[in-house]
Amino acid sequence: MIESSRCAVIAEVGLNHNGEFELARRSIVAAAEAGADGVKFQNFRTEDFLVDRSLTLTYRNRGETITEPLYDICKRCEMRKGWIAPLSELCRELGIEFLSTPTSEQGVMDLVRAGCRYVKNGSDYLTHTPLLRFMAETGLTVIISTGMADTADIDDAMKAVERAAPDRVILLHCTSSYPTAPEHTNLRRMASLRERYGVRVGFSDHTEGWQAASQAASLGAVLVEKHFTLDRDLPGPDHWFSTTPDELSTLVTEVRRAETRMGSAALTPAASELATKDDWRIGVVAARRLAVGDLLTGDDVAFRKPATGILPRELDRWIGRRLAVAVADNEPLRPEHFAP
């Protein structure tokens, strides 16, 4: 999937299953129907990273502003361990990839046992180099988000996965703000990541709409990841800024169009140009009727369409040459008109 020559589109369900297996299953089906190449979850355990119940998160839901303990939000949106096998199997049946973000070595191994080929490290875990090192040692392809990171942070993360071959590491440019404003999207970072680290790069897209994802594909992203929900009115912190199935379908279409527009790098005419190239280009024609034996001069020629004879850039080769046949006024001049 991600090894292919096209940009993979990943639907990030994340917390948007709301702790309900059926909602998770329906999300996979909807993402596949929308054309996604993969679906990503988060098989975290809240206690792996959070015990302080005084930390809160304020978010929008159904037009209201809600503030809740972050612990409570994460706890009710945990992905059950028993979901991994059936959900990954569903993805295989639908021909898409199952990806997930674990928060412990046990979580990584749960993905390994389910036959996953990719493991995703979130931006909040970028500095957890022991877990990154463990991910790299599994042989899975490690996808690393770089939101909130500077060069030193990414350098450390890449050192942690140095045992993995370069083709088993993908760095995602990411801006960890929801939604991300255009002026903070910074897609040029993708080129910097590719140049500095020599690995494939992608884009974890938190902008609104499909335009940034399409642009990232044009800039060489091997994957784009987009938060995904079945309905923005579902309860929960991430639904309001997530992409719906119809919007994801549009995003996939626009990413594919962007790739098609990139086309070939060869400095040759497009196939559609070849049939009409001569009709539209300028050729050399006789400015008046020319007789057999005339020596061609600059006053004898004009430049007209179509370019079915000598081209203007070739004219110097024929000036001063004697005509072997008569040429009518406005007739394209051709090499066979001249004496050897």
Give a quick set of tags describing it.
340 residues; alpha/beta; TIM Barrel; 11 helices; 12 strands; 30% helix
Describe, in short, the structure shown.
With 340 residues, the protein is α/β, with parallel strands linked by helices. It contains eleven helices and twelve strands.
Number of domains: 2
At the fold tier of CATH, the topology name of the largest domain is: TIM Barrel
Low-confidence stretches: none
Lateral strand order in the biggest sheet:
5-2-1-10-9-8-7-6
Count up the helices: 11
Q: What would you call the structural class?
A: alpha/beta
State the share of residues found in helices, binned by percent. 25-40%
Series of secondary-structure elements, N-terminal to C-terminal: EHEEEHHEHEHEHEHEHEHHHEE
Can you tell me the CATH architecture of the largest domain?
Alpha-Beta Barrel
Average pLDDT reading: 96
CATH class of the largest domain: Alpha Beta
Distance between the termini: 61 Å
Biggest sheet overview: 8 strands, parallel
Radius of gyration: 30 Å
Oligomeric organization of the protein chains: single chain
Tell me the β content.
Answer: 15-25%
Shape: elongated
Q: CATH superfamily assignment of the largest domain?
A: Aldolase class I
Structure description:
With 340 residues, this protein is an alpha/beta fold. The protein contains eleven helices and twelve strands. Strand 8, helix 7 and strand 9 form a beta-alpha-beta unit. Helices cover 30% and strands 18% of the residues. 39% of the residues are buried. It starts with 7 loop residues before the first strand and ends in a 36-residue tail after the last strand. The protein folds into two domains: 255 residues, Aldolase class I (TIM Barrel); 67 residues, Alpha-Beta Complex (Type Iii Antifreeze Protein Isoform Hplc 12), CATH 3.90.1210. The mean pLDDT is 96. The radius of gyration is 30 Å and the shape is elongated. An eight-stranded parallel sheet has the order 5-2-1-10-9-8-7-6. A two-stranded antiparallel sheet has the order 3-4.
